[in-house]
Design goal:
Length: 187
Amino acid sequence: MYPGEPRRADVAPYNGHKSFQVTMKILQMLTLRGPNYWSIRRHRLIVLRLDLQDWDERYTDELPGFYEALVELLPSLEEHFCSPGCRGGFLQRLREGTLLGHVVEHVALELQTLAGMPVHFGRTRETRTRGVYNVVYEYQYERAGRYAGRAAVRICQDLARGDAIPNGNWLPTWRNCGNSNRPLPWD
């Protein structure tokens, strides 16, 4: 959706069937290590160029069970302020309806925070190409930050489709990987 443009009426709502196998696609992942377009103060940023494909213009309030599943998986998202500027602000945006690129940003930040690498800065902006977004988020350790982005895309995609997150015991392992010298759960 472009600024000022109403939601498209011709986009069929997600029907909740697991056979709906639309995927998001990471077109590019850049690691920034100094002053950059996105921030002069935050030098460690990941930029995901994310194609939402058919998930573009499907807002979170239109995805049955998405809010509940995400909050159950990551209840600490309550601490994200987001644009409302208050605790729970991101969850408010999630309930009101936001695009999945914005959710990917917050999930990537939260995964790193849960792993003992607290990060807070993120931005999601549309590009000139319809359905393609720049999802920008902070990292402390490059390898973990890059993985957090890929994991966030997978988590959001699976929850949007109504799929269960595979291997529910990944979170305790992820929480223990904050030290960059230790093997990470995907190594």
